[in-house]
Amino acid sequence: MKKISIAIATGIIVGILTLIGQKYLPINLNFLANSGAIWLIPAFSLSYFFHSNLRNSIATSITCLVGCVCGYYIFEAIYNQHSFAFNRWAFLWLVMALLAGTVFGAGAYIANTKKNWLQYCSMNLLPAVFVAEGMDHLLHIEAYLHMVPAVISKIIIGIILYVIINKNHCVKPKNLISFVLITIIGILSFAVLYGNAFV
Hints:
Layout: H1 2-24, H2 36-50, H3 54-79, H4 88-113, H5 117-123, H6 125-139, H7 148-166, H8 173-197
C-alpha cells in the first residue's frame, strides 16, 4: 500500500510540474514538460526499485502514470479556473497510461530479475523511448521547425541514457540490437498514437 501511495503522489507531482513547465519553460526546454517519455522515467524507476513481483511492478507503473494524467488535468482546471471536464485527451492519456504502464512496469521487473534477451530489451526501454520520440518529431519536422534543438536533445538524452545504463556493455551486439529494435517499435507506437490523436 505504501508503494502505491508513493506512486500516486509521484504521479500527481509530475503531472503538476508538467503543466507548470509548459507554461514557463522557454521553447527549447519546453520539451522537458511536453514529452510522454519524461513521464515514463518515474513510472519505470519506481517499478524498478520497488519490484516485488510482476503484478505489483505493473500496478506501480500504471498508478504513477494515472497519477500524472490526473495531476495534470485537475491542476490545469484549477490553474485556469474552469470546471474539470473528462475530455477525450484525458481519456486518451489514461488509455496510454494503462498500455505504457503495463509495458514499462513489466520491463522494470524483467530488467531486475531475468538474465536473458528480454533483460536487454527491458533495460533499453527508457533510452529507446526518448530516441523514438525524437525520431518521430524528425519524421514530422515541419511541425517542429520552431524547436529543432529540443527535438535533437531528445535523441541525445536517449543515447546518453543508453550509455549510462549499459556502461561498458553498450557496444555489445545484444544491447545494440535490442536498443534499435525497441526504438523502431517506439517510433511505430508514436506514429499510431499521434496519428489517432489528431484525427
